[in-house]
Amino acid sequence: MKILGSDYDGTLNHGGITDEKIGRVTKWQERGNKFGIITGRGADHREYLLRKFPNFKIDFLAACNGGYIVNESGEVIFDSRCDCVPVQMLASDLFEWGCDEVYVEWTRASIIWPEHDSDITSNEEYNFYSLETSSSIDYFNQASIQMSTDE
Q1: What is the model's pLDDT at position 81?
Q2: Which alpha helices (DSSP H) does the chain contain, by range?
Q3: What SS3 class is residue 75?
Q4: Which pLDDT does position 120 carry in this prediction?
Q5: How many Cα atoms are found within 13 Å in the side-chain-facing hemisphere of 149?
Q6: Integer angstrom CA distances of residue 146 from 6, 37, 66, 103, 150
Q7: How far apart are the first and last CA of the chain?
Q8: What is the distance between the alpha carbons of residues 80 and 23, in angstroms, rounded to a whole number?
Q9: pLDDT-derived band at 60, boundaries 50, 70, 90
Q10: Average pLDDT over residues 10-26
Q11: Which of 19, 41, 134, 135 has CB atoms 3.0–4.6 Å from 45's, for a disulfide?
Q12: In degrees to the nearest 10, what's the CA dihedral of 35, 41, 42, 44?
């Protein structure tokens, strides 16, 4: 048995996940091999892929850049969650350093702004928080930031 993992954005999904790509992965798996996706996205991406491509079998998903790994049945086999640093404190420091947005990932991506416009509500892809309400986030597996300039 061999194991093959592919990045999702710009790699497997470059030009879309076509029937040809699904066929090649299926052929690989039929030979007794395993196939998974390795992504910076959160673990909820597995459910998204299962809904969007019901014939696409994923043996594992390494989400949050490997910080959260689930097998084909959705069972968590690795979870590097960080609950020792409160998200609110981390975000507050990052905003002081000039960040415009802080993204935290665990099972679902969340975006934290210094102030959250109440007209913007969470959607299928993201949960939205203000710095004040981010205290309700218990843990994260990955954090990334958005800056207004490249510098």
Answers
A1: 87
A2: 19-30, 45-52, 87-96
A3: coil
A4: 67
A5: 3
A6: 25, 24, 21, 8, 10
A7: 46
A8: 33
A9: very high
A10: 91
A11: 41
A12: -60
